[in-house]
Amino acid sequence: MSDVREVLTWETFGEASRELATEVWESGYEPDIIVCVARGGLIPAGAIAYALEQKSMLVLNVEFYTGIGTTLLDPRLVDPVPDNHGMSGKKILIVDDVADSGRTLEFVRGICSQYTDQIKVAVLYEKPRSVIHCDYVWKETDEWISFPWSCLPPVNGVDSKDN
């Protein structure tokens, strides 16, 4: 894997999340609930929820990537698993930081589709190899991305593999 990275700063993140929220708003899509893909989607989902004045959020804890370029066989939900029935019949906006392989978002969209067919997906970044094409994308890249919330090692002194 190349050492070349797309670097997102906090300042640029603020601009990117605002632009992404504006794109959703200008499309005419008004979600009833934002489904956040944790952990990477927590901060983008919060910023977009504020920009859209949406207070209804659901967090799905999904595990797939175990390091740079390494994954589990399939994405899976991690406890605590919420009661998803609140999604029934709602217009959903799924938010994550990146559609890399797209398999995590495909998994989450599959969960949401059990409750509604009104689903859109928004990400900061989408990679060309993604198996799904998101409805709202701030930027396309094929590089590994350094996000401001995960670029430093954990404070416990253990170096994370996904930085």
Concise summary:
This protein has one domain (10-146): Rossmann fold (3-Layer(aba) Sandwich).
Structure description:
The chain is α/β, with parallel strands linked by helices. The protein has one domain (10-146): Rossmann fold. Helix content is 23%, strand content 32%. It contains three helices and eight strands; from the N terminus they run βαβαβββαβββ. It has helices at residues 10-27, 42-51, 103-112; strands at 5-7, 33-38, 57-67, 70-77, 92-99, 119-126, 136-140, 144-146. The strands form two sheets. A six-stranded mixed sheet has the order 4-3-2-5-6-7, with helices on both faces. Strands 1-8 form a two-stranded parallel ribbon. The longest helix is centred in the first third of the chain and has 18 residues, at 10-27. The two termini are 13 Å apart. The model has no long low-confidence stretch (mean pLDDT 90).
> Termini distance?
13 Å
Helix-strand pattern, N to C?
EHEHEEEHEEE
- Tell the overall outline: globular
Q: Largest sheet, if any?
A: 6 strands, mixed
Number of strands: 8
CATH second-level architecture: 3-Layer(aba) Sandwich
Fraction of residues in H or I helices: 10-25%
Number of helices: 3
Structural class: alpha/beta
Instruction: Tally the structural domains.
Output: 1
List the helices and strands and how they pair.
Elements: E1 5-7, H1 10-27, E2 33-38, H2 42-51, E3 57-67, E4 70-77, E5 92-99, H3 103-112, E6 119-126, E7 136-140, E8 144-146
Parallel strand pairs: 1-8, 2-3, 2-5, 5-6, 6-7
Antiparallel strand pairs: 3-4
Summary keywords:
3 helices; single chain; 163 residues; 32% strand; 8 strands; alpha/beta; Rossmann fold
